[in-house]
Design a protein that fits this description.
Layout: H1 2-27, E1 37-43, E2 47-54, E3 60-65, E4 69-76, E5 83-85, E6 92-95, E7 99-103, E8 114-117, E9 123-126, E10 132-135, E11 151-152, E12 163-164, E13 169-173, E14 179-184, E15 187-189, E16 197-199, E17 203-205, E18 214-215, E19 226-229, E20 231-233, H2 239-271
Antiparallel strand pairs: 1-4, 2-3, 5-20, 6-19, 7-8, 7-15, 8-17, 9-10, 10-11, 12-13, 13-14, 15-18, 16-17
Length: about 280
C-alpha cells in the first residue's frame, strides 16, 4: 500500500509540471515570438514482484508493478506564428526558420554571450556618440552578418527614415535620395532547433543538441528566411488546444489524488482490524 502512495505522488508531481507548462503557454499567448512548450512523460522502472511463472493459459509471465511516472523533457514547438501589424519601423518579423541574434554584453560579443530569438520587437537606441543602434527592448545590441552591432553613423538620420528589405538589408536615403547602406540583420538556423536551451520566454541559447548556429547568409543549400518590417510574429500558442490539455492534466492530477486518498483509507481500515 505504501508503494501506491509514492506511485500516485509521482503522477501528481508530473501533472503539476504539465499544468505549469500549459499555464505558461496561456500566459504568453500575446508575447511576440513566443514558442509553445509541451511536457513529455516517461515511465519509471518496473519492480519485479515474482519471477516468471506459468499462467493457466500456459504463457510464462512476470509479476511486475509500475513505480510511477516522471517528466522526461519539455519540448518547444517552432511552428510559424501569425504576423501581426505593428506601427513601429523597428519591428521585424521572420518568415521562415531563421532566428535573430543579439549579445547580452555590448562590450563582449563572443559566442557565449549570443542569444537567439524570434521576437523582433527592436528599437533604435541613441548611443553616447549620438548615433542610432538597433537593440532589443532590453538594450542588447542586435547583430549583423559581420558579427557586429548595427549602427547608423549619420547623426541626422531619424529612426523612421530607415528601411529594411526582405533580405534584412537596412538602409536610408540621404539628402540626394541616394541609398546609404547600414548593414544586414543576421539570421541563423539550427540543424535541430528543438535542442535549443530556452532562456526566459522568447530567447534561446545554442547547445550541443541543437548544433552550431548556421548563418543563412553564408551557409550553402539553406532555405533563407525573409524579414518583414512593420510586423511582429505572434505566439504560436493555440488557446483551444491548451485549454483541452489543461482539462486533461487536471483530471489526471485528480485521479492520482484519489489514489492517495483510497490508499489512506485502506491503511486506516487495516489499522482498525481487531483480532
Amino acid at each position: 500500500m505504501v508503494r501506491s502512495l509514492w506511485t500516485a505522488a509521482s503522477g501528481m508531481n508530473a501533472q503539476q509540471t504539465n499544468v505549469d507548462t500549459i499555464a505558461n503557454n496561456l500566459a504568453n499567448v500575446n508575447s511576440a515570438g513566443y514558442k509553445a512548450q509541451s511536457a513529455k512523460f516517461k515511465s519509471l522502472l518496473y519492480q519485479e514482484l515474482k519471477t516468471k511463472t506459468v499462467q493457466t493459459t500456459g504463457s510464462p509471465v512476470n509479476s511486475d508493478v509500475g513505480l510511477g511516472v516522471r517528466v522526461s523533457s519539455i519540448n518547444s514547438f517552432f511552428t510559424q506564428g501569425n504576423l501581426q501589424d505593428n506601427d513601429s519601423s523597428s519591428a521585424f518579423a521572420i518568415q521562415g526558420d531563421g532566428f535573430f541574434a543579439y549579445s547580452t554584453d555590448a562590450q563582449d560579443l563572443n559566442a557565449n554571450n549570443i542569444r537567439f530569438t524570434r521576437n523582433g520587437n527592436f528599437v533604435w537606441a541613441l548611443t553616447e556618440a549620438n548615433t542610432l543602434e538597433l537593440t532589443t527592448s532590453e538594450g542588447n545590441p542586435v547583430l549583423g552578418v559581420d558579427g557586429g552591432p548595427l549602427v547608423v553613423n549619420d547623426v541626422t538620420v531619424k529612426a523612421s527614415d530607415i528601411t529594411c528589405d526582405a533580405e534584412g538589408n537596412l538602409y536610408y536615403l540621404d539628402a540626394n535620395q541616394d541609398r546609404q547602406d547600414i548593414g544586414t540583420i543576421a539570421l541563423f538556423q539550427f540543424r535541430n532547433a528543438e535542442g535549443l536551451e530556452r532562456i526566459g520566454d522568447t530567447s534561446f541559447m545554442a547547445t550541443m543538441a541543437s548544433g552550431d548556429p548556421l548563418p543563412e547568409a553564408t551557409t550553402p543549400g539553406i532555405r533563407r528566411s525573409q524579414v518583414v518590417q512593420g510586423y511582429l510574429e505572434g505566439s504560436n500558442v493555440n488557446v483551444a488546444t491548451e485549454m483541452v490539455n489543461l482539462i486533461v492534466a487536471q483530471r489526471a492530477y485528480e485521479m492520482n489524488s484519489t489514489a492517495i486518498t483510497t490508499t489512506d483509507e485502506m491503511m486506516q481500515t487495516a489499522n482498525q482490524l481487531k483480532r
